[in-house]
Amino acid sequence: MEVLVEQPCPQCGGQITLNAAHRLLTCPYCGVKNFMQAAGAFRFILPVHKTSGQGGRLLYAPYIRFKGNVFQVNDTGISYRVVDTTQDGFPLSGLPPSLGLRPQAMPLLRVNGQSPGRFLRLSVKLSVILQKVARLNTLAGKETKKTYHQAFIGEELSYIYLPLRQEKQALIDAVVNAPLVELEKVRAVPLKGIRASKSWQVKFTATLCPRCGWSLDGEGDALVLHCLNCETSWSLGNQGLKRITAAMVQGNDKDALYLPFWKISAHLPSLNIWSFADFLERTNQPVVVGKLWRDKVMSFLIPAFKLRPKTFLHISKQSTLNQWALGQEQPLHTTLPLYPVTLPLNEARQSIKVVLAASSVSRKRVFPYLPGVHPENLSSRLVYLPFTDRQYDWLQPRTRAVIIKSVLNFGRSL
Ligand SMILES: [Zn+2]
Ligand SMILES: [Zn+2]
């Protein structure tokens, strides 16, 4: 589901509505570009209804929104599903366990230092909420399988607060102006809450290249921006603009589209995987291991853009296993058609074990050992690979990774 937020432009005050997950804000009125950073997850509130009575004080109940792919590796293979849900973070009898469709029915507002009222503290551990999310939609009977590994990838975590008006007898749902909780019944629960913290506030930073001052451009969901002037690449994170290493493999096709991958080099000591050759052997690939591959450090090539789980696994596996066929990397030309990076590096890192499992020919030799696998000496860079236009899909001719065009477009809305 697409959740929108109403956001005044920090420059001219113009009211802008944008996707709640986007970090890049381009004002249609004054043209100023900013990116938004927060100390943690973004925080939003459902707007109080205009007809919701006056008086009483506002109290906000926290909900966690999780959107992403859940992967599970077990005896029978890898299962996955797409999850998009809100879960209550302050269980209180009478409050809905989830916000349901509400967040997409109206644009949210961002919590800021001036937000009136008090906020109930999150009283459920995030890990508990994620465990609950993982179990959502699990078919009956599947529980008995042994799970070797579980990962949450491409996740978007945010807080959405439900405004309540505290009156004498009851807590009123201030979005629809209807009583929700009888205070008599929840007497023992502390409902004091805290004021909006300054640290919750989103900070706006102009998207100028920190190296040369050139204006950086990108679409709303982009997480990496390139400077067309000094050919540098910058990731948008909670610490601001951070320079990253970006490279590319040159394509022969002049109409190629360049798709971004996180190339993550790592050792997996518990499986004795140090080189690319080790990886091919441990995962029982039916190939003759080349001599040079013994000196090639193991790297995973993980798409740096959002995809449905099935395609994500296919592309990661094809690209990782066939990386030897890719030509030399060279410095990135920022003027080429580059597809935006929409999956952050830390999400890609969390998928290493899933990609290892997906690449394994012999499950028995890898799956049971997954709990003990701890990737070490991680280093990473962004690498763009050329994909050839084949009318309905994009093909990477050397790794044979294929992405159906509609699937790639669909990923933007994930
Ligand atoms: Zn503006
Ligand atoms: Zn620059």
Give an account of the 3D structure.
The chain is mainly beta and 414 residues long. The protein has two domains: 38-203, no CATH class; 245-411, no CATH class. It is 13% helix and 35% strand. It is built from seven helices and 23 strands. The chain has helices spanning 102-105, 126-135, 276-282, 309-321, 345-349, 352-359, 405-411, and strands at residues 4-8, 15-19, 24-26, 33-37, 42-45, 57-74, 77-88, 108-110, 118-119, 147-166, 170-173, 178-182, 203-206, 224-226, 233-237, 240-244, 246-248, 257-267, 299-303, 330-331, 376-389, 393-396, 401-404. The protein is globular. 37% of the residues are buried. It binds zinc ion (2 copies). One zinc ion binds next to loops.
Radius of gyration from CA coordinates: 24 Å
Structural category is: mainly beta
Could you say which small molecules are bound to this protein?
zinc ion
Helix percentage: 10-25%
Distance between the termini: 8 Å
Along the chain, the helix and strand elements come as: EEEEEEEHEEHEEEEEEEEEHEHEHHEEEH
Strand percent estimate = 35-45%
Mean pLDDT: 90
Detail the poorly predicted runs. none
In a nutshell, what does this entry contain?
With 414 residues, the chain is mostly beta strands. The protein has two domains: 38-203, no CATH class; 245-411, no CATH class. 13% of the residues lie in helices and 35% in strands.
